[in-house]
Amino acid sequence: MKARIRRITTVVEETRIEGGRPVLPPTRRAAAIAVIANPFAGTYVEDLSELIAVGEELGGLLTEKAVAALGIPGDRVESFGKAAAVGGEGELEHAAAILHPKLGAPFRAVLGGGAALIPSSKKRGGPGVALDIPLGHKDAAKVRSHFDGMEVRLPDAPRADEIMVAIAVTDSGRPHPRVGGLTKEDVVGEDGLS
Amino acid sequence: MADVVVRKIVTQIDETFHEGGPAASRPPKRGVILAVIANPFAGGYADDIAGFMDDLKPLGLDMAGRLLEALGGDPALIEGYGKGAIVGEAGEIEHAALWHVPGGYAMRELLGGTKAIVPSAKKVGGLGARLDVPVTHVNASYVRSHFDAIEVGVADAPRASEIVLALAMTTGPRVHARVGGLAAADIKGEDGLR
Q1: What ipTM is given for this predicted complex?
Q2: Nearest CA of chain A to the CA of B151: how many Å?
Q3: Of A5, A33, A67, B28, which is most buried, counting CB atoms within 10 Å of its CB?
Q4: Does any domain span residue A191?
Q5: What residues of B are in contact with residue A18 (Cβ under 8 Å)?
Q6: A194 assigned to some structural domain
Q7: CB contact under 8 A, B10 and A8
């Protein structure tokens, strides 16, 4: 194992009512969050390849956890997202090293595909910081019903020398979508956009 | 009789691998399940509220069952528990007390007649309010290694006329418990205390 993991948390949300109306079937989404040691906290290093490898490892591990918590096969996931928060002694570039170069391939492998860019966010913060994971349709980024976000937070993370890494998957878009745009039924699914 | 109207269910499972010390051979899991429900008594003072405790019993059993399942499904693995409630601002703290009976007894029934009282916390709060749910050993409240707490909250709840109900279960002690006191191995198991 490349990452030194202190804690892994999975969260599943099931929305049964929104705007006072039943959501049938309920919308469900899951996040998996790992709290890991930041090997570069407090120092500036040029070569971030160690964190790139950590991203590759967590891309598979966290996606497996989240999909299992959601209780559906990977290919039934409709939207996805990723995010990271570095502790006070880390750099935003540390989050970028985990999220961007290599996390996506193992993430998509668990889902059996996903042509769209995985939307992401990053920040620096202290223990308890709220991380809003952006969500978008996994095959076509322009599907308007699936633009969303999921807030996650852990009271004890990230410590100054830690990084909190999160991914999210859903079995659905927003409850009661009605602002038009591309629908999931009309996805072509070739270029990742439409 | 009042309807129990559930807007949202959130399930969260933590695995703690270490807290700065040696890695645990069996990482303890800490789980919570939260239900966001409508508060039938919001907005006015009602004297007669106690009947709602019976109405909540099926939800309590459903939540306890889902939480146990998310923790592996075996009642013998559950070593600690707790419960709590957050009442939205149009309600009163007494409404949180309605959860003691249906929440506590659901877990005790499901876990096979555990002996210790289920510790609890309650508050009135707004959207995103956090609650520290206390946790103690299921058969002997004085077991020191199992004194713990799990912070819970839902970003968009409770709205003014809602209540967030919480149940918590754990599969082990604090990850590096080492401050002595009554050990789980030395429980007499008669009075629920020692």
Answers
A1: 0.85
A2: 7
A3: A33
A4: no
A5: 7
A6: no
A7: no
Please give the backbone phi and psi of residue A70, each rounded to the nearest 5 degrees, phi first: -75, -25
CB B4 within 8 A of CB B59: yes
Print the domain residue range for A44: 5-186
Q: Is residue A174 part of a domain?
A: yes
B70 touching A (Cβ < 8 Å): yes
Please spell the DSSP secondary structure of A47-108, one letter per residue: --HHHHHHHHHHHHHHHHHHHHHHTS-GGG--EEEEEEEE-TTS-HHHHHHHHSSSSHHHHH
pLDDT per position as a tens digit, B160-186: 999 999 999 999 999 999 999 999 999
Chain A, nearest residue to B132 by Cα: A155
Torsion sign over Cα A89, A91, A92, A95: negative
**Domain for residue A68, yes or no?**
yes
* Rg of chain B on CA atoms, in Å: 17
Is A1 a residue whose pLDDT tops 70? no
Looking from the CA of B78 toward its CB, the CA atoms found within 13 Å total 33
* Cα separation, A150 vs A27, whole angstroms: 13
Confidence (pTM)? 0.91
Between CA B132 and CA B142 the distance in angstroms is 19
Give the residue from A91, A94, A81, A154 showing the smallest Cα distance to A120.
A81
Residues in chain A whose Cβ is within 8 Å of chain B: 5-18, 69, 130, 151, 153, 155
Q: Which residue on chain A is closest to B130 by alpha carbon?
A: A155
Cα four-point dihedral sign B62, B64, B65, B71: positive
3-state secondary structure of B31: strand
CATH of B6-186, one of 1.10.3720.10, 3.30.1330.110, 3.20.20.100, 1.10.1200.120: 3.30.1330.110
Q: What is the pLDDT of residues B106-133, one digit of tens each?
A: 999 999 989 999 999 999 999 999 999 9
Structure tokens at A63: 């996606």
Whether the link from the prior residue into B27 is cis, omega within 30° of 0, is no
